[in-house]
Amino acid sequence: MPSDHDRTPRYARNSLTLPGAVMLGTGVMIGAGIFALTGQMAEMTGTLFPLAFLSAAVIVAFSAYSYIKMSNTYPSAGGIGMYLHKAYGSTLPTAFNALLMYFSMVIAQSFLARTFGAYTLQLFEIGDQSQLVPLLGVGLLLLAFLINLSGNRLIEGTASAIGVIKIGGIIVFGLVGVALADSIAVDFARSEPQPTYAGFLGATALGILAFKGFTTITNSGSELTDPHRNVGRAIIISIALCVVIYTLVGFAVASNLSLTAIIETRNYSLAAAARPALGDYGLWFTVILAMTATAGGIIASIFAVSRMLAMLTEMKLVPHSHFGMPGDIQKHTLVYTVVLGLILTAFFDLTRIAALGIIFYLIMDIAIHWGVLRYLRHTVGAHPAILVTAILLDVIVLGGFIWVKITSDPIVIGVAALAMVVILFVESVFLANNPVHSGNSHHHHGN
Length: 447
Description:
The chain is an all-alpha fold. The chain has 14 helices and no strands.
């Protein structure tokens, strides 16, 4: 029995339903993706950006295969942290890649927070370069932190309610936007910037960022009812829902705004697209929808990512200090997660936050597929050809994205490289001084 001083996190079995897990997944996906990435993708690949969402969906479908196979065999609260541990044991690759995932999820929260700020200011016709953007984002993160302190039922209830409003609202936006557009045909002649292969790959990489929320579902394995079947199902349903919604919205935006306008309003392009079709009412509807969606996404994301860091701490793979705080490790990781998110929200703009997130995520994703291919494919029953395809697709889009950024914003590539070197160095020193029994020892979190 745990003592009064036991700080290990506790998970309430069967406290999450399948619809609840789908809402958590789509909550993160739709919040991050559609509201701020549409304009950024248009900037990279011109009028082909709705197709970039579709190509991202194809890559994510291959990507999801490893996660579904792993979660069917090893459902746990650690999600990706546990999957990496099953593949690589208590080693530097596990710690490094798990931390890349952790930081990419914290980055996603900052992305949502800044998006919330950029959209909210459209109600007052204030530009998205205002200092109020990070200020509003910081306020939202603090509110999400308080909701997360209050426990699972409120989180699931809040995420489910917001999820229903958001999905319904975005479908209405897409349908009405397409119906009222002068012409559904996107004017492919308006091709400034000229689509290039690298640009299209770069936009596809950003599109993957719009889908990567499905990975948060893997963290709910200890709490989901019938996790051996339902984690995989929740992932498939979430991705399918988002493919339909993103395609619809992409065409609605492209039908209502010129490419130049989409790029100019890239941080709030859905609000801008609503105005020609629906006037001020459309703008208000879209902004309130964006505010709701991003808020729901942050609540769901903080829930998942703090659990993952708690698992890594339990595995003794990352340094941890209580800093004199009361409560269990999961409460502490919640604090660290929000503090990091606040710093990013205050100091980085949307484009750079997105770039860091996708680089970290794709490198970690490649490591997951390689781990399954190399060590676990027989255990989890995975087909090697699908795993190899997933790795190749990730490498191609990551290469395209890095090439675009080197030519347009080399600083962000430098920041990403420096951050990875620091993570590698700190983890190498930590693991050398705190040796953990290596090998694929099965922890008690899997079933």
